[in-house]
Amino acid sequence: MGRGRAKAKQVKVARQLKYNSGGTDLDRLRDELGVKDSDHDDADDRTDELADRYADYADDYGNDDDDRPSGRR
Q: In this structure, what are the phi and psi dihedrals at residue 64, rounded to the nearest 5 degrees?
């Protein structure tokens, strides 16, 4: 009979984990993972660099989607 009580407790805990967010502390998680706090400007700069780097390819290959099969019938 003890199995029923243990299972009920496991179900209760599982439901709490599933439906309650728990209030995650993102700053503490960042500290634990060792992620440096960087400005978002750095990410924008990297994105701009990639865009500039591949802009020539976009001009060469363009948007000629009409030549490719769409996969739909």
A: -85, 60
In this structure, what token pair is assigned to residue 72? 């739909």
Work out the pLDDT band at 7, boundaries 50, 70, 90. Answer: very high
Take residue 42 and report the two structure tokens written for it.
């750095």
Of the two residues 36 and 72, the one the predictor is more confident about is 36
CA 33 to chain centre: 16
Displacement of CA 23 from its chain's centroid (Å): 18
Q: Which residue would you say has higher pLDDT here, 44 or 62? A: 44
Contact by Cβ (8 Å): 30, 37:
yes
